[in-house]
Structures are given as C-alpha cells and as structure tokens.
Amino acid sequence: MKVKLLVISIIILGTSYLYPQEKINYGIKIGLTSSNISKKNIKPLEIGNPRYYINYPDGQLLSPTITFWVKFINSNIFDLEVEASYILKGSSENHFEIVTPGNDQDLITEVNKSVTFKYFQININSQIKQNLGDVFIYGIVGPTVDYLFDSENFQLSTTYKKDFIFGYNLGLGISFNKNIFFEIKYNGDFTSFYKNDYDEYWNKVWVFNLGTSL
Fold first, then answer.
1. Which of 13, 25, 65, 196 is the most buried (most CB within 10 A)?
2. pLDDT above 90 covers what percent of the chain?
3. CA-wise closest residue to 198 among 31, 17, 44
4. Do 165 and 194 touch, CB atoms closer than 8 A?
5. Can you name the residues that pair with 116 across neighbouring β-strands?
C-alpha cells in the first residue's frame, strides 16, 4: 500500500511542475454512488459441529454524494484538484445467512434494508486533459483517505471496523465548458474496512458526479 501511495504522489507532484497554471478555481459536485461489499478470505466459524459460514449477501446500493473541490493548478493540459466529500458506501441487501454445509434449512435473520457506512473523504486528483474542440476529456487518478463517522445496520462486531481507510480514484471526465463537467470514477481501497479471524469485507464504489465551478 505504501508503495502505491508513493507512486501516485510522485506522479501528481512531478506533473504539477511541468505546466503553467492559471488562477485557483473551486466549485461543487453533486452525484450518486453505486456501492457494494466484497468478501475475501472467508473461513468457517466453528460453533460445535458442524462448521458455520456467515454469508452477508451483497447488492448495489445507490446513494447521494456531495463534494466541494479546489483546483490549485488549472491549465489546458493538467489540473491538480483537492476534494472534500460526503460519501456513502455499503450494500443494499436486507438479510444475512448463517450457512451450514449439508443443511437445507439455513438460519436467515432479517435486518433493515441496507448496510450503510458514512464517510468523510479527502481526495487529491491529478487530471490529464485533452482538448477536443468544444470539450475537454480528462483522466483522473489520485490517492484518497476516508474517515468513517457513522454506520447503519452493520450486524457484525464494531470492534473490527476501521475508522480510516486509504484508497485511490481512477476515472474519466468530460468538461463541456469552463463551468459544467461530468465525471465517472472508481473509488477503490488499499485495505479492507472490516477484518477478523474469519473473513474480510471490502468496499467497491463507483461515483457519478455532475459538477460546476462557483
């Protein structure tokens, strides 16, 4: 993880010195996130005999998001942007199962409709732009850090949740003029947000933003 963060930071800082910059620009982005939960390294939970597997089904969760951004470097080729976002992650499924291998009547416990994690997120995005006449197309890459300040309907132990998560943005954007733009980003994590002796849980998030300068 440290190597990935170092490489991204070097790319951003190195590129920022190659191009002349204009005045600082700032604005707002409003959009939707499409998130899901991925399970890895699942091991059986042994409570007597036989063994049990906890299966927390995943499902795409659509949530609103809002972002305030500032561009400290703003040129025709390269932008350096810092974002502060309120972002929701989680899963839309409304139950979890304890699965007993070889048993057709698994225990199903109902909970509320969605599992939601509320994050305050800081991003540093490097944007490489290409002028296509009336529009700009640009790529987005950069590190992120999330702070978890609240969660809803997460049935597993809160002891193993991580308050800070480091990750990255990868995406594309299109700017129709200097004031209106649209972006699609994949927001990935370098670590799981929950880990115990039996399984790991990872967030997977797509972000769709419509933005403007102020």
1. 65
2. 41
3. 44
4. no
5. 90, 152
CA 51 to chain centre: 33
Question: Which structural domain range is residue 183 located in?
Answer: 2-213
Distances (CA, A) of 37 to 61, 108, 134, 159, 200: 9, 19, 39, 18, 10
Convert the pLDDT of each residue in 28-50 to its tens digit.
999 999 998 888 776 666 555 55
Report the run of H or E that residue 210 belongs to, with start and end.
strand 200-213
**132, two tokens:** 């296509």
Q: Which of 107, 99, 176 is nearest to 136 (CA)?
A: 176
- Strand pairing category for 25-40 and 78-91: unpaired
Per the structure, the count of domains in the chain is: 1
| Residue 14 to residue 2: CA distance in whole angstroms | 18
CA distance 153 to 161: 13
Output the pTM of the full model.
Answer: 0.78
pLDDT for the residue 182: 97
pLDDT tier at 94, thresholds 50, 70, 90: low
- Residue 37 is part of a domain; what is its CATH number? 2.40.160
> Mind giving me the DSSP string for 24-57?
-EEEEEEEEEEEEEEEES---EESSSSEEEEE--
